[in-house]
Amino acid sequence: MAGEVLSLHRYPVKSMLGEDLAALELDTHGVVGDRALALTDPDTGRVATAKQPRHWRRLLTCASAGVGDDVRVTLPDGRTVDAGQAAGPLAELLGRPVVVAQQRADGAVVERPDPEDVLAHGLDADVDAPTLEIAQGAPGGRFVDHSPVHLITTATLDALGVEALRYRPNVVVATPPGTEPFVENGWLGRRLTLGDVVLVPTLPTPRCSVPTLEHGALPRAPHALRGPADRNRVEVDGFGVLPCAGLYARVERTGTLRVGDPLDVT
Q1: How far apart are CA 201 and CA 190, in angstroms?
Q2: 200, 180 Cβ separation under 8 angstroms
Q3: At 57, is the secondary structure helix, strand, or coil?
Q4: Percent helix, strand, coil in the chain (nearest 5)?
Q5: E runs forming strands in the chain
Q6: In terms of residue numbers, what domain contains 206?
Q7: Which residues does the UniProt record annotate as the domain MOSC (predicted)?
Q8: Backbone angles phi, psi at 240, to 5 degrees
Q9: Which residue from 160, 170, 159, 167 is spatially nearest to 115, judged by alpha carbons?
């Protein structure tokens, strides 16, 4: 056994804080209800994400919870609104018009400035922000960054001194004492069995500006990027050599994933 599931997380609205759960349902598209909704810019059609902190970092002061037609958004002032009615309050918060999207369009893109440029020049600096197509490794219409599921280990989190919340995983695996940090790198090309579910890793998870930002009451944390940049720059197929922590995976066998489920790597 390579570890066991320590915690499970779902983020109903992209780039908002999410919810901690005792169990997750996984279908072939990933975690049911995860990144099911997103905000889009009505002028450009681009998906709003705190990867572009200049425009969208205040999304991380909001929280989302629920699934299907029952997704709710909690605003920084404590108000809770139905996600479908949240565009007005969120536009006021962000200072920009937004649309609540319920289905990812084919070829949907986000702005992704180089996170090291953002650290060097500041959150409001007008740095180059190339667009990146999201969900390149995911079927269906969810607004995931790449593949359907994101997993990270306590070995990696503890070595970096970073809260799991900042990296926004679906699954945190508690690994045995002595496990090397970035053990996830060695799981590529293998199969991960977690209780009823089987995942197949697809890519190491590149780290962007998001982990460095304020998350609710958590302050900024530049070390959440600098740690992977110093200790784990790896080749990410199709994207180049990037600072990474954790891994992306696709779902090979669907089912219910529960806290406490053992992890076997084969």
Answers
A1: 7
A2: no
A3: helix
A4: 20, 35, 45
A5: 3-10, 19-21, 23-27, 30-31, 38-40, 63-65, 72-74, 80-82, 99-101, 109-111, 131-133, 149-153, 171-174, 192-194, 197-206, 233-236, 240-253, 255-258, 262-265
A6: 3-265
A7: 125-266
A8: 100, -170
A9: 167
Q: Which two tokens stand for residue 202?
A: 């697809």
Give how many domains the chain has, as a whole number. Answer: 1
Phi, psi (deg, nearest 5) at residue 177: -55, 140
Q: What is the pLDDT of residues 119-171, one digit of tens each?
A: 999 999 999 999 999 999 999 999 999 999 999 999 999 999 999 999 999 99
Kindly report the pTM of this predicted structure: 0.96
| Gap between the Cα atoms of 114 and 207, Å rounded | 10
> 179-212 pLDDT, tens per residue?
999 999 999 999 999 999 999 999 999 999 999 9
User: The domain spanning residue 129 has which CATH number?
Assistant: 2.40.33.20
Q: Match 């995976």 to its residue by tokens.
A: 249
State both tokens at 235. 């080749």
